[in-house]
Each structure stands twice: as structure tokens, then as C-alpha cells.
Design a protein that fits this description.
By secondary structure, the protein is α+β, with helices and mostly antiparallel strands. The chain contains four helices and four strands. The protein has helices at residues 11-23, 39-49, 62-67, 75-84; strands at 2-6, 27-31, 93-96, 99-102.
């Protein structure tokens, strides 16, 4: 089953959700701001994306600029920041089995379907 880490207030996330709905594939919606991923879940997502954790950070968020910008951080520290402040997580993220994709642009979701 597919899983989408979704923020309903985000246009790109809504577009990603629409692509999943149109696919006809079964999926689960995770509203990650209401139900934040725990550390191991977030670390697993990073591993499935095959990117450094920093690539999932929304660097224009004020919390990033205030607390983390300019600091040297390990992947573990970046993942912990996303767990502590889920608003920092790029969206949408679609996960299926051992694969994941960041839906920016939303058309990238079709690569995992």
C-alpha cells in the first residue's frame, strides 16, 4: 500500500494526493503535522529516498532559519529536527515498499506508481 505524507494546506501536496487518487492504487494518508513521524520512521523514509536528510528540509520555514540555519548537522541531527518540528518536512512524500519519492513537482509521483 502507498502512503502519502500530506499537508492539506499545501497546494503541491493536494496535487500529489489527486495523482494518487486518480491512480486507483490503495493508499493511506498521513497528515504528518497532526501525527508526526517518530525518529525511526523518518530515518526509514530518508533511507528509501536515497538522499541526504537535509534534502527533505523546508529551508524557508522560520523555525529552520531561527534554530538551524548555518549549523553543521549530521543526518541524525537533521532527522531529529524534522521529528521535533514536522513543519520542516518537505511535502508530499510518497512511500511504497522500499521506495519513496518527494512529490516536487507532483508529477514525480508517477515514477513510483
Amino acid at each position: 500500500m502507498f502512503r502519502i505524507y500530506h499537508n492539506p494546506r499545501c497546494r503541491k501536496s493536494r496535487e500529489g494526493l489527486a495523482i494518487l487518487e486518480e491512480s486507483g492504487e490503495p493508499f493511506q494518508v498521513v497528515k504528518y503535522l497532526e501525527n508526526p513521524p517518530h525518529y525511526l520512521e523518518m530515518a526509514a523514509i530518508v533511507g528509501k529516498l536515497h538522499v541526504p536528510a537535509i534534502d527533505l528540509i523546508r529551508k524557508n520555514e522560520s523555525i529552520w532559519k531561527e534554530k538551524f540555519k548555518g549549523k553543521e548537522m549530521t543526518d541524525k541531527e537533521v532527522i531529529q529536527a524534522m521529528v521535533d518540528y514536522p513543519i520542516l518536512i518537505e511535502r508530499p512524500i510518497i512511500v511504497h515498499d522500499n521506495k519513496a519519492v518527494i512529490g516536487r513537482p507532483p508529477e514525480k509521483i508517477k515514477n513510483i506508481l
